[in-house]
Fold these 2 entries.
Entry 1:
Amino acid sequence: GAGVSQSPRYKVAKRGQDVALRCDPISGHVSLFWYQQALGQGPEFLTYFQNEAQLDKSGLPSDRFFAERPEGSVSTLKIQRTQQEDSAVYLCASSLRGWDTQYFGPGTRLTVL
Amino acid sequence: GENVEQHPSTLSVQEGDSAVIKCTYSDSASNYFPWYKQELGKGPQLIIDIRSNVGEKKDQRIAVTLNKTAKHFSLHITETQPEDSAVYFCAPKKPKPFGNEKLTFGTGTRLTIIP
């Protein structure tokens, strides 16, 4: 079956532009997570959804970061007024329920020039 | 929060030899101990996990051992193959109500298998 998919795979933005990153979780998975992975580092938690409810957004680094999952399936991570420090790989993961195994997508590599 | 460290940060082994990666954590409440493998251009993938009521678990060429007293657990890969080359992460987790659903990854170990 299909795994977690993310689009685009690569995104180059000029500083100050807004970007939107999409995640399609595994069908039927209730929980969805976003992580940020800087070069040479481990992934770091950004935010978590259970269905359409955003239960934890403690990892979002600033109010320029916004995530939504309006119908409890596809999720979008939006970054406004991108900065160079936002350059990273953004990973999406889904799980059947919150405490089950998380399955990761391939990530979106964002480069801010 | 949880302090998670891995050693070594890089490891090179000859094909066919064994590799061991150690993960040290700080929170004694942790009770779930997974290892993830991340290949270039891909997301992390769970390869093996262990719970605190078990000391060792094996799955073909990989195994995980746990020392709860010393607060560390290790990944063992035997008969290494070129496809084992990747970055490996541990992500110890606490149960409810002490923890939550998110994963806290270790610092990572880059394993290179030399043909």
Entry 2:
Amino acid sequence: GDSVTQMEGPVTLSEEAFLTINCTYTATGYPSLFWYVQYPGEGLQLLLKATKADDKGSNKGFEATYRKETTSFHLEKGSVQVSDSAVYFCALSPPLGGFQKLVFGTGTRLLVSP
Amino acid sequence: GAVVSQHPSWVICKSGTSVKIECRSLDFQATTMFWYRQFPKQSLMLMATSNEGSKATYEQGVEKDKFLINHASLTLSTLTVTSAHPEDSSFYICSAIKGLRGSEKLFFGSGTQLSVL
């Protein structure tokens, strides 16, 4: 079945460092890909998404590119802030799958220190 | 933005007791809500789909008699873990769909950490 693999955390960075959180997937066809973020005490919220190969999703300085050839959707940010400390979930949805078919990764905790 | 409230945030209970977790959509009506759980170092997994006014749909391997879901109103779904055991200790999250087909968005609760002693 479909699956998502993301790097184990926590990822610990200093403020203004470059961030990469790796995410690879296994799926049939062309799924949609998502990054969700969960800030402390809050629910997951959609950070960005890409629906087809070579699409780049971006939001709040974060970006991720849908790479069909490497089945990856790595999350990057050029300069992290303390306020980016959160848990980041990579997810996919099969074609025409809808919310019920969302497949999540394990989540990666990011800790940014001043 | 829309808010989904989930309570309690954490609960500790004795083995054999039942625990109820509430999921409320605070500023919208949700015909459909979802329940997930996440064991340590594992993926967030869908347990069941909760539909207002009808029976929940459970994913394969999830015991419907153990995890009772009630979605009696358009703003509230509850998950009751009956006769909880230590292996039920997990992080439980709910989510709710807001909007009409074609413009739907998904909003999540903040989760409930259940520890069964």
